[in-house]
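Memo to structure team: turn this sequence into structure tokens by end of day. - J.P.
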Amino acid sequence: MRESVSSIRSLKELQRAAHTLSSYEMAMLRHTGDKLRLFPEGVERNENSECFLLHARNIGDFLIFPRKKDKNDDVVAMDYFLSWKPRSLCRFYLSKREQINKAAFHITYSRIKYEEKHTKISIGDCHRIFTELQIAWRAFLDALPADRRAWFGCRDEHR
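Reply from structure team:
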């Protein structure tokens, strides 16, 4: 039996969002993920890791969280596949998510605590997140029917 897609978005909206997710968000995650080892320290490291973490958070949240009632504008994986449940694929990302939010995307007192304790998100952590999200992304695409998978630029022969 074929599972229906989101009831609050049109097929055209879902297709456009799928294109953006694959052609921009995943492309930037891969690009910045591949560059992580090039800049082990300094401003370039911070610049690249923050860009990486931004796209990691976007993809991670897309894959993991259902739509919040007050966030009808957010694109979530369940818009494409209602029974999608990837939490077990992204445990490390989930363990770092609050730190990513507090230390990288908001000016918070928690950021100061992370810096004082020398618990910044490391390049190794970024690589682990990168690997985990790529596996979850692939699992998401593999779970989709072929017609919806095509919205993300995937052809069955290239899976």
